[in-house]
Inverse folding.
């Protein structure tokens, strides 16, 4: 049986940053024997960019980072697989077998023991029991986004040769994902029109549906209002205070009427995996692991960070399920685990600092409020347009810097910029 001091399950924003930080602390020749990262994908894609992958304005072949490469650069080990069993008392996890497309066994089931385990397995979509939810597409991971991109391009081609020359798209949920997806969808539509020619042009109707009284309801009202104005300029139909009752093959049925929909994307709410309830750890109503100020679960030596965790702070507020929170939790856990490895006391507790809210609204537009002082999140400035867009891009670069370093991040950014200049913004295959 393999054994590691620290196992990190899940290579999302928090998991991969924690593995990179901790691996570098141990250093070459040591970290890869101490730290293991496990993920069911071989490629890491920063989750806040999935909406761009989904509409084809970001190429996952360029954007994706191989976990094996990150492991080599940051001195940790990587195993491809999915968590299928968890035994906190025995300090063991089970990784399911891997099979080829034809069913051939590639890697048998395995058990790995640990001293400390950090669960960073993310979350999925919350259907809220909506009838016909199976008719909607979800964007929970890179595979979902890539499959949807192929599907969307096929529907674009179909609409361009149909008699109606019309495509109705409904996006349910106007949080950051839904709003950014709607805006980016118009970018993809405009790009495809430059390619298919005048004779095959078609009309697109995008409906963004939100049950709350306003879009981006968890963000400052000014960000919501400005984003609403940009969406309206992009001719996106926004329905706020509208509850979805049912999804059919060609309709979204709401409490205010029916909305035609050839394509439905669900971006409303999160819910962690049902399997989390069977790990012997305390969970909440959406299957998140309940953690304390050390990010510790109800079991000794087991921690949880990111979307799969739920932490209520001293003031009664809960940590949001965002990449920003996962980034801070990864930094906190790296310090704590390193102190434990050095057998030194660690008395800090995690305190979330809200650095602001940013929304990307297409190629050259964005809206946000950012903190002018990291220690005082109430001191914010409002930004919009290209400045806000580049501020949003800088968050992406910061994540890459954490796992790649400055030089590799710079080279990668320049290579991607050059590729877009040559090949165009839209991926068509």
């Amino acid at each position: 049986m393999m054994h590691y001091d620290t196992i990190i399950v899940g290579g999302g924003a928090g998991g991969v940053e924690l593995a990179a930080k901790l691996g570098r602390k141990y250093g070459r020749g040591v970290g890869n024997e101490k730290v293991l990262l496990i993920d069911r994908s071989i490629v890491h894609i920063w989750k806040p960019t999935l909406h761009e992958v989904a509409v084809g304005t970001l190429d996952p072949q360029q954007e994706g980072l191989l976990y094996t490469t990150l492991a080599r650069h940051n001195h940790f080990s990587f195993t491809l697989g999915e968590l299928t069993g968890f035994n906190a008392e025995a300090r063991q996890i089970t990784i399911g077998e891997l099979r080829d497309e034809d069913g051939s066994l590639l890697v048998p089931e395995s058990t790995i023991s640990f001293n400390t385990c950090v669960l960073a397995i993310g979350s999925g979509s919350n259907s809220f029991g909506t009838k016909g939810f199976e008719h909607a597409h979800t964007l929970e991971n890179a595979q979902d986004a890539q499959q949807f991109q192929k599907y969307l391009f096929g529907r674009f081609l179909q609409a361009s040769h149909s008699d109606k020359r019309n495509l109705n798209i409904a996006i349910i949920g106007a949080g950051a994902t839904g709003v950014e997806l709607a805006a980016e969808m118009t970018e993809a539509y405009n790009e495809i029109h430059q390619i298919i020619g005048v004779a095959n042009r078609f009309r697109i109707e995008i409906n963004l549906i939100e049950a709350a009284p306003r879009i981006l309801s968890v963000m400052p009202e000014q960000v919501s209002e400005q984003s609403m104005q940009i969406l309206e300029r992009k001719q996106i139909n926004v329905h706020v205070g509208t509850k979805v009752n049912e999804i059919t093959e060609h309709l979204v049925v709401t409490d205010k009427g029916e909305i035609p929909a050839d394509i439905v994307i669900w971006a409303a709410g999160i819910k962690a995996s049902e399997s989390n309830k069977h790990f012997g750890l305390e969970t909440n109503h959406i299957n998140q692991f309940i953690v304390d100020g050390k990010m510790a679960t109800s079991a000794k030596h087991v921690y949880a960070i990111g979307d799969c965790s739920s932490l209520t702070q001293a003031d009664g507020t809960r940590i949001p399920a965002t990449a920003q929170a996962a980034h801070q939790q990864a930094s906190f856990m790296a310090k704590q685990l390193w102190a434990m490895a050095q057998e030194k006391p660690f008395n800090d507790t995690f305190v979330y600092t809200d650095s602001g809210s940013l929304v990307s609204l297409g190629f050259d537009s964005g809206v946000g409020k950012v903190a002018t002082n990291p220690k005082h999140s109430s001191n914010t400035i409002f930004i919009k347009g290209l400045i806000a867009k580049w501020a949003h891009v800088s968050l992406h670069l910061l994540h890459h810097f954490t796992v790649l370093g400055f030089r590799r991040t710079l080279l990668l950014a320049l290579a991607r910029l050059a590729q877009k200049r040559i090949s165009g913004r839209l991926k068509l295959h």
User: Anything to note?
Assistant: The mean pLDDT is 90.
